[in-house]
Request: fold
Amino acid sequence: MEFSGDRFDVVVVGAGIMGSCTAYEVAKRGEKVLLLEKFDFLHHLGSSHGESRTIRATYPEDYYASMALESYRLWEEAESEIGYRVLTKTPHLDIGPAANKSLQCLIANCEPNSIHAHLLDRSRLRDMFSGAFQLPEQWIGVATDAGGVIKPTKAVAMFQASAIRRGAVLRDRMEVTDIKRDEEGGGIWVSAATGDRFWGRKCVVTVGAWMKKLVKAVSGLVLPIQPLHTTVCYWKIKAGHEKEFSPEAGFPTFASYGEPYIYGTPSLEFPGLIKIAMHGGYPCDPDRRDWASGFGAPVDSVIPWIERVLQGRVEAGKPVVEQACMYSMTPDGDFIIDFLGGEFGKDVVVAGGFSGHGFKMGPAVGRILAELAIHGEAAGFDLKHFRLRRFGEDPKGNAKEFEDQVSYPNHE
Reply:
């Protein structure tokens, strides 16, 4: 294999949102960084593409709020540096049965994290959002100001451009096939299918749905990460109601707790359409997707929800636009952010299993990964819930006080 000749402080493998944010954060700290991507930059084969992602600070788990709020700040900081916007601010609304444990935990986490929340009954919620939401009996809502819609492909491009401006080197169509310790001089050798080899003092691996395959290939360690093929749907707003669902009218990003878990964004990407989707999907091999699985149940589950909650304002017959995406699920739905350990010690950092809710956290995760690689620790973040080896202690991972939120077959 051919040595590229360049030596880097950090080699980042995977140029989705997490890898791109990491490369930017490493370059911002004055370190020499290389970002490698298996496919073309800004490809649509993983989890960092598409028309929109939600940002929210409300979570049933108490350890995500601070990360989300820090990400919100870092999104705005990156926008200010590049000179254009990728985040549209909106309110955020969580709804569901008043007795739902996830919703109860979410409400309890607001005050300790300084999240100003409005607890709404059916009548007050209807008034706040111009009657768009018609909650069933015994349902409640929680509204906050910490919401928004992110343009994902544009956002990834923003962090890549900012990283380049700060001296980062980016290479795509560079599939990493091996990662080894440099036994002679220290550091890490990263090998690609092209025959190229790159040397880094440290390495960060964040390859989304390919995490399980790559980590097993280079270390023998099997991460419990299950890729899911999921479907994002856009539905037609009924004539005369289009403006009610716009960010300008104050329509929120939203999450509906219960079975199924439904989420959505204001009408922004396609005029007259609104994104409403089920949080779930079907297990898949990221290299052998048939691009058809999952267009049944995830779509069908949304129809009765629309008829029940957005009655008379959104056409529930079938979605107008359907787009494919992937999740990388862990058993507990929590991230993996840790040193690979073993023969690699603290020289290789891994980040994956973002379980369908990680994109919003990209800037904060990038900061964490950069600091772990450079300094061996991330100041200001408690990463105990994201430990790699928690699954060796309990295959289910972190204990939760509430039910699972993501739906997929064979999931216990």
